[in-house]
Design brief:
single chain; mainly alpha; 7 domains
């Protein structure tokens, strides 16, 4: 006998009994009459009966329950019947435990409430477990099935005849994905596509397979209970809540009754058997070029070839639901002989063209140098960046940086298009908050745009690198270069050191000039304090302004000071308050008093703080941009002598409103020419 054979009501009753559903012949005949069959003689086939029952049952009432009758009938099918319907049967204790899981889920009660229904709420024995299962399943599960599920649970958790709530919850709970969560949607869709890929189903074939299993080929749509049965019987690998969640995201509504093939295809992309075609269609649909692909994948064209783990991460940045099987097949298709994927090879396969970015970033650095520095827009550029720096840490978000570059380079008349600037900004290094350091950016524009923009600062930077790489202290270097007779390092001797160790290509006369600059106190020799002053000011743009012009003469007889002067005109008082607030916040986190921070900025214990020491000390506790600290120092240095005592340091750091900051009329400038 097959499921298509028309049989009598008594035969149907016997089949129901075999499936665990005990129903009297009177009740069965009433049901048959209600759904439109003749109750005498041969009435219908099992296939027709299930179809009629599905149509009769209210889908909304069944939306949150598992159709246990169908599950049990299918579970008890003969091999021939299963083959006829194309249904994959679930075998063994695992299927019974899954049915009990989904039964408990469909009840809608918390597990702890179910656990406590027939007992003391601490431990559960078999008779209590059987009573719960039979009560909620209307005796559809046989005693043998329930006993087997119980024994399996006890053996798994190494318990004898009793289990606690911990074991009960571990065995019979179902993880419910958060409704509306993008991560949950990604996980569920990935499971479906993994199943499709393993079975080699296209989108249309997969949906047709589910329709056939749920006996909905004629209707071409599936209701929520149909999707439950089809997914479970085809081994898609989704839990009951995940199937509910899948139905909701496909129908785009928690109250919809059916899903169509078009809705299925809207989320379950086509060509699952061809991952390369799939990724190409995604890129085309989003109108992405090679640069967009790299940006989405967080890669650079010059990066090392990708091994599979990193390749999988990058692919899922394009499409989070891409299954591991699809990613592995794609990797195997485009990898080279050493089992890695070249960046340019990947782009060629995904976009059809190579990414033309050779020296693009460096070319932009040079172009920006011409537009900003050669045209005297450096101060304007820095000021706008500082005003956009919400946390005063020297960083801005990429979108803001793009707009600022566009504005500074001419706005609507800029030689750079929005796409040019965006392509450039995407290649800049970002921190973990996806922000870009504009201080580093300005240094790189100068370094790449014009290597001779500030050669004196380059020399000092190389001295700093020489000391760090050789693990040398300033005192040790000075001692090595000293003349034994005088214990001094002459300007000529230090120029020789620069020529031999620091910059072998630069003319010696220029290096001699730089050695004179490094002699800050102008006593004719290079001492520890001279070198320390230059190195501690390495982050100060005021110190190196004009290629060290302020250091060409003694600071005691020149109008060109190397400490900042009149910089406060470029910073609004509101920004001063913001910077002070960030410093106070860092002090509070580290439990520092104002006098403690002052001493950190005064390592010599002189009772006065210099610009370089101020920047070094503050940046040791807070991430504040050096240009902003220069301007804050200028505000503190009311007498414009390049030094700040504790009284001024303390008073300015405590300001909480712009009105507390002294104006130009409140400042008495020193009358001496330092």
């Amino acid at each position: 006998m097959s499921l298509r054979d028309v049989i009598s009501s008594s035969k149907i009753q016997m089949l129901f009994a075999d499936a665990g559903y005990k129903i009297t012949i009177i009740n069965l005949k009433c049901v048959l009459k209600e759904i439109g069959f003749n109750w005498n003689g041969k009435v219908c086939s099992i296939q027709q009966l299930i179809g009629k029952l599905k149509d009769y049952i209210n889908p909304e009432a069944m939306a949150t329950s598992e159709p246990l009758l169908e599950t049990r009938i299918i579970h008890n099918l003969t091999d021939d019947d299963a083959k006829l319907l194309g249904i994959k049967k679930r075998e063994g204790t695992h299927s019974v435990i899954e049915i009990i899981k989904e039964l408990f889920y469909s009840i809608g009660k918390p597990l702890y409430q179910i656990f406590r229904e027939f007992g003391d709420g601490q431990l559960m024995e078999y008779h209590q477990f059987a009573k719960i299962v039979k009560g909620y399943s209307n005796n559809t599960l046989s005693d043998a099935d329930i006993k087997e599920a119980w024994q399996t649970t006890c053996q798994k958790h190494k318990r004898k005849d009793v289990i606690g709530f911990k074991e009960f919850q571990s065995e019979f709970s179902i993880h419910i994905p958060l409704s509306g969560s993008l991560d949950s949607e990604t996980i569920v869709i990935r499971k479906v596509r993994e199943w499709m890929f393993v079975k080699q189903y296209s989108t249309a074939c997969a949906f047709e397979r589910l329709l056939r299993t749920a006996d909905r080929l004629v209707q071409k749509t599936m209701r929520r209970p149909d999707l439950h049965v089809a997914c479970v019987m085809n081994g898609v690998g989704l839990t009951a809540p995940e199937i509910d969640f899948l139905f909701d995201i496909l129908s785009q509504s928690s109250t919809a009754n059916e899903i169509s093939q078009a809705q299925w295809a809207s989320k379950i992309f086509d060509d699952a058997m061809n991952p390369l075609q799939l990724i190409r269609e995604i890129i085309m649909a989003d109108n992405m070029d090679a640069d967009d692909v790299l940006f989405q994948m967080k890669l650079n064209p010059w990066d090392e070839p990708l091994e599979y783990p990193k390749f999988l991460v990058c692919i899922r940045r394009i499409d989070p639901s891409f299954s591991e099987g699809q990613a592995r097949a794609l990797f195997d298709k485009i990898k080279n002989q050493v089992e890695v994927v070249e960046i340019q090879t990947m782009l060629t396969n995904f976009c059809g063209t190579l990414l033309d970015t050779v020296d693009y970033k460096n070319q932009m650095f040079k172009s920006l140098y011409d537009e900003i520095y050669r045209k005297g827009k450096e101060e304007m550029f820095l000021t706008i960046l500082e005003q956009s720096d919400s946390k005063s840490d020297g960083k801005v978000v990429p979108d803001t940086l793009e707009k600022i570059i566009k504005r500074v380079t001419g706005g609507a008349q800029s030689r750079f298009s929005v796409i040019d600037i965006r392509k450039f900004v995407r290649q800049l290094t970002r921190d973990r908050d996806q922000k870009i350091s504009y201080v580093d950016l300005m240094d790189k524009i100068c370094a790449q745009g014009n290597k001779e923009h500030n050669p004196f600062k380059t020399i000092v930077s190389r001295i700093k690198f020489f000391l760090e790489s050789n693990n040398l202290a300033i005192e040790a270097l000075v001692k090595r270069l000293q003349d034994p007779a005088t214990n001094l390092v002459s300007i000529d001797k230090f120029a020789d050191f620069l020529a031999m160790k620091i910059d072998k290509k630069r003319p010696r006369e220029i290096l001699h000039t730089f050695a004179e600059y490094i002699d800050v106190d102008k006593d004719g020799s290079i001492g520890v304090q001279d070198l320390r002053t230059c190195l501690v000011n390495i982050k100060s743009s005021a110190f190196f302004k004009g290629n060290g012009l302020a250091l060409s003469k003694s600071q005691f007889n020149t109008q060109h000071k190397f400490y900042p002067k009149n910089l406060s005109v470029n910073i609004p008082n509101t920004k001063v308050v913001e910077v002070c607030k960030e410093i106070r916040h860092a002090m509070m986190e580290q439990k520092l008093a104002y006098i403690t921070l002052f001493k950190m900025c005064d390592p010599q214990g002189a009772g006065m703080v210099s610009l370089g020491d101020f920047i070094f000390g503050v940046q040791s506790i807070a991430e504040i941009a050096a240009p902003l600290l220069e301007k804050l120092f200028d505000v503190m240095d009311e007498n414009k002598i390049g030094m700040v005592d504790f009284e001024k340091f303390n008073r300015i750091l405590r300001v909480e409103a712009p009105s507390q900051i002294p104006g130009p009329g409140d400042i008495v400038e020193d009358s001496f020419v330092w």
